[in-house]
Amino acid sequence: MSSRMKNWLLFAATVVIVLLLSILANSIINRKAESQFAYQPQVSINEHEPRNEIWGENFPRQYQSFMRTRDTSFVSFMNGSKMRDALEEDPNLVVLWAGYGFSKDYNQPRGHGYAVQDIYNTLRTGGPTGPGTGPMPSTCWTCKSPDVPRLMNEIGIKEFYTGKWADIGAEIVNPIGCADCHNPKTMSLQISRPALIEAFQSMGKDINKATHQEMRTLVCAQCHVEYYFNKNMPDKKGAQYLTFPWKDGTSVEAMEAYYDSMNFSDWTHSISKTPMLKAQHPGYELFMTGVHAARGVSCADCHMPYKAEGGQKFTDHHIRSPLDNVANSCQVCHRQEKEALIEDVYQRQKKIKKTQIALEKLLVRAHVEAGKAWELGATEAQMKPILQDIRHAQWRWDYSVASHGGSFHSPVEVSRIVSTATAIAQEARIKLARLLSELGFKGEVPFPDIETKEKAQRYVGLDMKKLEAEKETFKENIIPKWLEEAKKREDQMGVDKVSMK
Amino acid sequence: MSFLHKILPPKEWQPVVAVLMGAIVALGLYMVKAANVTSYLSDDPKACINCHVMTTEYITWQHSSHREVAHCNDCHVPHDSFLKKYAFKAKDGLYHATIYTLRAEPQAIIMHEAGQEVVQSNCIRCHKAQVTDAKSASWVSSHMHDRLDRTCWECHRETPHGRVKSLSAVGYHVEPLPIKEQQELFVPEWLEKATESKKSTP
After folding, report:
1. Are residues B178 and B123 in the same domain?
2. Which of A97, A307, A326, A476 has the fewest CB atoms within 10 Å distance of its CB?
3. pTM for the whole thing?
4. What average pLDDT is seen over chain B?
């Protein structure tokens, strides 16, 4: 082989090697570029993105399971996901809440997916005819939608709590969802409602010190708690400021003392003239007194257990009764038969329910007897200690029933509350018996005929026809306007697509 | 004539050859950088998702309880000697790189026999206490055989990657932040500002 030949061969070999190397380099670069588009989010989620379906683009599994909160097929002994008319099931409630919105309409809660729809429909929000009308304050929206933190950030917290429910109807359209609990960038759990942060501050605690497991409960505690609207906040005049009465503790007695010390009442009872307290689902407070909380179990552990689908484990966002999902909730720890576990739950609930119903009857009697005493000319001074007892007894009763799942979450505490309430209710009735005889009344004040919801509502003087007609007018005239306005706003929001898909 | 003389080009060609060799080496260096080759010397699981076809394995592991105690290499490379570990890594890595470059990756990645042996021995390495029983070994004649004639994952089928592992099995996912960073996010900035006043009255 001549040296020239050799050189040509060398040249050719070098060409081949360098060519192969370049192809390899090119392939590496290509596949790196490809990686930029594999497993990427579809959209970028902005800080206050209220639209659940936009989050759903990136997290289809969580979103699809969240959508199933609209399923209403499950019914348990106490609740379930079906719409159940609580007043029909237990007409005593109508009398207990006489003079207050809850006697008009009160249903067992449905899934989060219905939050906005159900607040439209309930007779408690009445039939506003425009801004500034209707019975309820804007604060009622606070727990209904991820539009709330968006709007609070836009107009200010105090401003959000100021005005009527109808004033911001057009602003709130997405049901409870992603932005209520998640940081849009990292998907970490986060608090979006000021009331819980302020409640922690009032107890001298810092919510940022919570553990991740506690956060799996605290995001629920933003709403599933006892609250009241404070109208006398210094420097917040005019606002109905959402507040949790936790400053001196979260027990039923501590909150009662808190309300007493500020002379707070939610409404005045229309029969007994008692300055009443309405307990609103102290779910978190009662759960914390139970054995599951003591063992470090969080809300999400049972109400949103892990689920595997297509090779990925994720949290089931179909938030519901664990009794609808015993295998993934209870049976992770309790290795008993499903039927036995459900029986355990029902047994606690049924026993407590019995004592609650008995207590309700006493309270109804107390209200009616107090009404009779007023009729016979009792004085304010004579009635004061009696009304105080009625107030306390019913507050405790309400605390025990309004906390959904309370008689399972913490059966001993709920029983204890019911028994203290029963004692106080009887105390009130003994005082009433004395007073009635003093006023010359002999015998028994008859238990009212309140066998059905209709009878009970007539008895407390509600004009249901009028209320329903107002609601219909509102649904026909106002809601379409709200939805139209909301659609206009959301159409302008746009969507930030991430990739070129 | 020494060997060196044989391969050295004639004097007048040496500069040219030096330049060409330099070009080839530089191209090689560039590739080392682009392919992030040094990351493969580490034990960081992120090195395994330099190629996106491993994302499914990464995410399924990340959602498993093994996340807390074992990284990819704890199970997938041998640990009986340093040399063996890197030899296996190199062999496996080159094989993966080849298949990936040829775009020949399967829709669902499964272990070959060599890999299975390594994983099985690593199961035993950590779970020795659960799989040995002196009492049984002393009087159950088939005890040894019963323990060793099958792989752990013939029964523990979900551990740790689950049973569904195709390239399209998982979608986009966000890695959990370290706890410390998460805690800074419990209250978003706008709300932190709005609720700053440590109110003494409720």
Report:
1. yes
2. A476
3. 0.87
4. 87
